[in-house]
Write a sequence for this structure.
């Protein structure tokens, strides 16, 4: 549903009002929550779509392997025009002329054959192992889809939070710019009445221009972040949207770290390593099965016709033929090729085990670092929030004192500069805190659950 965010519209119109050249964000469009952005991305993100295609392909490969257990029916047919019949030399004794030979052309000019052959595997251990391998590939595709979905969720959350933080920073800078511009206009009036000096006016104008430049850059950052969000969602860039979620006060939530077993089970990279190990073991079994015999059943029915004239569709003189049989195939000696492949597969098993061991350690390190990063980000945002409150209080007090003529221009400029620095520091740490939290949840393997429980 398309609707208009009144507050966002008023803010954007205010930006237009105070500067004709200052770029602004989209005013009208569709309001989206974080969950709505994710729902849109589930259906339109290219990586998600391709992961679904890969899963569908893996399912078809399983069906392909199942088809090898079913009877195979094949129809064949051929038409041959013997432009020059082959010559056979026979001994003269056959014609009562000993010691001589005679050359005879044998056959007919046109030969036609046609038939149907049925084959059915009775015993082939490699086929069953190939089917299991196809199912492993399907399972791997399912895990990759889940992993791709988790990565998409992380990116959407990152960009959504980034855009929200930039919007809050934009609003704060806009208020600071309005206040600075009001002081500038007041100082211009005082200068006109001979109650202020030109140098004071120039200092205030410089500070106002600095705020304006930061605000302009903030608006550009907002548009870029919003574009990146739409691209990650799979949404056309020219679509008008705005974000409706708000960032509430930072809350300290207890961190519960999962046990090692549960931690590894929740991590998709660990699941993929486990599937890789099973695939390597299946490769050993597949090559070992090559030493076993393969038994199959074959049945054929066909007929052929031989003509000296091209009367192939004449129903006379067609000669049927048919047979049934069993075929047993057993590899006796292959130059130790299969043994070499078995050795390679065993080495790949050991390699997979080593990769799993390394992945386990990597997951533990990542979780530990994410926890440290989250606690550090929490401490920083609390500190910067306090600093911003103090800087805002000092800035407003200095503005009042300046209007009353009880403080200097230098004091005003210094308090405004400190306020802008506190703003930048606070919003940088706010984004770091939000990202640190979703990074922690991703390290725990619980990002999807965390996002689902977000209000």
């Amino acid at each position: 549903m398309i609707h208009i965010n009144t507050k966002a519209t008023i803010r954007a119109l205010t930006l237009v009002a105070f500067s004709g050249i200052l770029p602004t964000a989209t005013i009208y469009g569709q309001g989206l929550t974080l969950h709505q952005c994710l729902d849109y991305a589930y259906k339109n993100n290219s990586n998600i779509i391709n992961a679904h295609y890969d899963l569908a392909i893996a399912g078809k490969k399983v069906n392909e392997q199942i088809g090898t257990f079913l009877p195979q029916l094949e129809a064949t047919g051929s038409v041959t025009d013997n432009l020059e019949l082959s010559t056979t030399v026979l001994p003269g004794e056959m014609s009562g002329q000993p010691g001589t030979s005679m050359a005879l052309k044998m056959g007919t000019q046109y030969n036609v054959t046609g038939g149907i052959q049925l084959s059915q595997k009775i015993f082939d251990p490699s086929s069953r192992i190939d089917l299991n391998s196809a199912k492993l590939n399907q399972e791997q595709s399912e895990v990759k889809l889940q992993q791709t979905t988790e990565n998409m969720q992380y990116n959407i959350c990152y960009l959504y939070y980034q855009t929200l933080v930039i919007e809050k920073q934009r609003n704060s800078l806009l208020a600071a710019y309005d206040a600075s511009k009001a002081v500038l206009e007041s100082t211009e009036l005082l200068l006109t009445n001979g109650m202020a000096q030109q140098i004071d006016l120039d200092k205030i104008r410089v500070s106002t221009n600095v705020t304006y430049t930061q605000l302009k850059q903030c608006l550009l950052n907002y548009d870029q972040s919003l574009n990146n969000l739409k691209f990650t969602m799979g949404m056309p860039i020219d679509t008008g949207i705005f974000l409706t979620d708000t960032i509430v006060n930072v809350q300290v939530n207890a961190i519960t770290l999962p046990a090692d077993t549960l931690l590894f089970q929740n991590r998709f990279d660990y699941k993929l390593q486990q599937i890789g190990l099973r695939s390597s073991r299946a490769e050993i079994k597949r090559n070992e099965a090559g030493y076993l015999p393969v038994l199959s059943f074959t049945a054929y029915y066909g007929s052929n016709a031989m003509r000296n004239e091209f009367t192939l569709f004449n129903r006379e003189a067609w000669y049927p033929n048919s047979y049934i049989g069993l075929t047993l195939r057993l590899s006796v000696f292959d130059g130790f090729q299969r043994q070499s492949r078995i050795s390679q597969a065993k080495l790949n098993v050991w390699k997979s085990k080593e990769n799993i061991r390394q992945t386990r350690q990597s997951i533990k390190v990542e979780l530990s670092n994410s926890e440290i990063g989250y606690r550090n980000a929490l401490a920083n945002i609390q500190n910067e929030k306090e600093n911003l409150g103090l800087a805002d209080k000092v800035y407003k007090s200095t503005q009042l004192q300046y209007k009353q003529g009880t403080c200097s221009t230098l004091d005003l400029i210094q308090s405004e500069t400190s306020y802008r620095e506190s703003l930048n520091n606070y919003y940088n740490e706010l984004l770091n805190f939000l990202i640190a939290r979703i990074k922690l949840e991703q390290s725990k393997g619980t990002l999807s659950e965390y996002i689902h429980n977000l209000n």
User: Anything to note?
Assistant: Residues 6-70+124-293+330-452 form a domain with the Outer membrane efflux proteins (OEP) fold (CATH 1.20.1600.10). The beta strands are 30-32, 72-81, 87-91, 101-105, 110-123, 241-243, 294-307, 318-329. Residues 1-27 have pLDDT under 50 and may be disordered. DSSP finds ten helices and eight strands in the chain.
